[in-house]
Specification:
Blueprint (H helix, E strand, L loop, with lengths): L1 E3 L6 H11 L13 E3 L6 E3 L2 E3 L13 E5 L10 H13 L2 E5 L3 H6 L7 E2 L6 H7 L4 E2 L5 E3 L3 E4 L4 H14 L1 H11 L19 H4 L5 H10 L8 H8 L3 H12 L3 H19 L4 H7 L5 H12 L3 H8 L6
Parallel strand pairs: 1-2, 1-5, 5-6, 6-10, 7-8
Antiparallel strand pairs: 3-4, 9-10
Helix pairs in contact: 1-5, 5-6, 8-9, 9-10, 11-12, 11-14, 12-13
Length: 317
Amino acid sequence: MAILVDGMSALEPAVAYDFLGADRRSLHPAWYRYTVCSPGAEPVRIGGATMTVHNGLDALRRADTVLIPGWCSIDHRPSEELVDAVGRAHQRGARLVTFCTGAVVAAEAGLLDGRPAATHWNAGAEFVRRYPLVRIDPCVLYIDDGDVLTSAGAAASIDLSLHLIRRDFGADIANTVARDMVVPPHRDGGQAQFVALPLDTRITALADDPVAATIEWASARLHEDLPVERLAAHTLLSPRQFSRQFKARTGTSPHQWLLTQRTALAQRLLETTDDPVELVARGSGFATAAALRLRFQQALRTSPQAYRRTFRPPSAA
């Protein structure tokens, strides 16, 4: 395994070493052997420290797995030399693994074209704009597409590392490593549950706009039945006119906006109250607990109960 570093946060390279690079031959005699490399074998700035790297890109010629633990910035294009070396390694048969924005290097090499891939949710929109052939999934923690595996933001590198161990050595060994590192062997949900869903204040700031006034009015009544006919009547427009103007201002439909705001309200209620899921569902406009569970599964890849366990502050319990 070649761990390719070229400037990034300190967490992802540490995860690569602690989970995959540390000597665990007591668990399996064929445990990973690794080499750290970088373009030019030069010192690499990671966080507030400098890592001395002794191997250049020649190490990729021998590796059966190339791991890119993050990238310094989605706005920083990797060099042609680096992209070339990664592409040739993969063409030779090496498996490619990327953590977080390390997917930038794989995308630049064309190795994600037509494939599903994961990266940090905050970089997703720019990633899609820059690499339109890549099928970015902003919800999942990681994606295993056979010879190319990608993960979401920093901590998701742990999830992908454990998945890699599970795939290569089996569930028992992956669970043993998870216990040793004091992390769950599998996390419920996906990265979508970490994305904030705020009300768009740019819309409510338009005081003379009847659509903006209706958005503010509806925001205080998310628990009520709000069909487009009722929203349009408040704006003194026909449903068709209202829907057209609403989309022009918000970029989405009234129905999708309501779903997003009700999901955000349900998240806040789960984080800050003891209300059972049935009450949270009614209080956020989903009517039934079943409807709320379905929405959480579709939008956040988790359940309301699991979300509450993960995000409720201990002081609130």
